[in-house]
Each structure stands twice: as C-alpha cells, then as structure tokens.
Amino acid sequence: MRQRVRALVFSKPMRVLLVSEPGVDGVFRHVEALAAFLLAHGHGVDLAYSDVRGSDRLKQLVIDLEAAGGQTLNLRVGNGPGLQDFWALMSLRAFVKKTRPEVIHAHSSKAGALVRALRFAGAQQPLFYTPHAYFGLAGKGGLKSLVFNGVEALLGRVGTTINLSMGEMAFAREVLRLPQSALRLVANPVDTQRFFPAQAQRRRELKLALGVPEDAVLLGSVGRLAFQKDPLTLYRAFALALKKCPQLWLYHLGDGELTAECEALAAELGMAHRIVRQRYLNEPLAFYQALDGMILASRYEGLSFAVLEALACDLPLILSEVPGNMDFVQMGLSHCGSAGKEDPVGIASAIESWVQDRSIARPSNHRETAEKRFSQSACFGALVLEYETAVKNG
Fold first, then answer.
1. DSSP string, 174-192
2. The pairing of beta strand 183-185 with beta strand 160-163
C-alpha cells in the first residue's frame, strides 16, 4: 500500500476530464481533492457530473473549475440504470469531442460504465476508472450482483482500473477475472492540513455544542445510510455496548435510503436519546474533532475517506473486517479494533474493549501513518504518473 513516488515534477501539463455521478460523500470528496491537486500542479481539469445526488460543495467545485478555465457538463443521471443514461452517453461523447482531454478518469460505477462505453463510440484517449468499492464486494448474491459483476468483468478490460485497496484489487483479479495488467493499486489520500487532531478544550466545546455531556465517550460514524455501510448492525452493536458502557454516545453523520429504518430501530432499542444525528455537514472537520473514536461497520469498502480523515485526526478506530477496511486492520495501527461484518455482538465487544483501553495512555501512531502513507503528493502523485505513462504509450 505504501506509495513510492519521485519528486513531483511532471513532464508536461495535461488536460484531464473527471467524470463522477455522486456529488456528495466519499467519491465526491476524492474527485474534489483530485481536481484541486491537478490544478495546483498546472494541469487543466474539466468535469462531467450529476446534480441528482448533489451538494453545495459540488456547486462550488463547478464554479471553481470554470473560473480556472475548465468546462463542465451536468449529466443529470442517478446511480441506477435508466433511459437518461443514453442521453448522458451522447452528451458525454459530444463533450469529449469539444474539450479534447488527454485523459478521461471515471469515478464510481455509473461514470465508469459511461466513460468506458466511450471506447465503443470512438474515443481514443486513455481511460481510467476508480470503482470506489465494487458492488459485488458485498457478497450479497442475487441477480443484481450478477449483473453488476458481469458489467464490471466486461468493461474492466477497457482502459485502466485504479483499485484503492488490496481487497478491492483481489476481487477484481479473482472474482471479476480482470488481468493484472489492467489493474493499478493507488490508495485514497487524505489532506492532513485540512484534517488534524483537536485539542482537549476544542473537543469539549464541540461536544457541548452537540448537547453531549463533557464526560461522555463519543463514538462517531459517517457515511450513506445504505446497505453498504450497514448502519443497522452499527445500531444493534451500539445498543449492546451501551448496556456495559453507559457513558457512550453515538454521533452519526449521513443520510440515505435507510434513514427512516435507522430512526425506527433506535427508538425500538431505546437508545435514540444517545444518538446525535446530522444528515450533512459542508465542512466535516468539526465532526471528527468532536469524537473520542471512530467506527465503521460497513459490509465492504474501497478505501474509506472517513477512516483516512479519522486517522489524520489521530482517532482510535473500530472497523468491520471487510475488503477495504482490512488494509487498515492489518497495517499495524496502534488503536484499531475490529470484528466480523454483520456481527453486532462482535462489534459491541470491540467497542467495549476500546472504552476500557481509554484508561491506558498508550501512544498513537495514527496521525503519523496518515502523514507518511497517505499524503496527497504520494497518492495523487502516483496517479498522475499513471496518466503520464498512458499518454506517452497511447
């Protein structure tokens, strides 16, 4: 996972088209940060996006890119298949002819399908695709997984796939049967200047602003309230841990199709009064700085931005043992507990062990790990070198 990159002196400026359907959450934060990195190093950036799942940060990114001389296109598509996809493909094809990028990089499955379909519509540019966690990693089975895996296996032979974690790459190679020559491992980075640990007084102030007692132990989780993130298992585990650790509170940031179900479960378990809920934050630093620890009970991940941001803020971690998360579990982190996926009892036990461990003032290596292994210069630098190689060989 460690990136080895020469000094960031790129051979020449390139024009890069970034394509993304989500305009919110981790995928978008990756695209937002990559766009800023490319601009800072003299490259031109155009953006094809969708405002169906948008945010005010997406609106600002569009403004910033256009102000920097880039062009933008609203594809107006959702994450599921639909008739709008054909219009989006034709619009994207025309946009590519107009902007003439040297590299096209798609992010997440909808953009990945559209961009790689461009090859069959005559596009000759190097094509890159970052899945940000394959749908099939859930191991859910059924027709939907079969269809998604089939599409990924077929289109995975077009262009270069950028895998974010060892687990994601193993799935691409062993399940989708993609050739190793089409795969690259380049981790998500984290901006350690934007995300940093809070002083004790700052944490107290943020807790009080949330209505959380000063002496409470605040565990946080962030992500879409959807099948992938498995918030229902998180709630069941938290309710179990709360019986043995009455000082616990949960700060849950995110929204999604399971929001109502999560609220009903919290009420049923009698712990709604111990959950602070926010659907969205324009600037998430305050979320991390309020926490005493971070938990992610996902069924699968690419390489979670939330975990990386928690690392940069030097927070202890509790993670489900699934692809993407296992890269962190096996990294030698000083304060990282784990349990199996969909295992409320195991996750509750990990929470209880973390609470007990808080009384021991052990040194943490989380912030140092974020700085050394996941800097933007290392991760995005490696990605730009892949762009350069593809353009040179193309």
1. HTS---GGGEEE-PPP--T
2. parallel
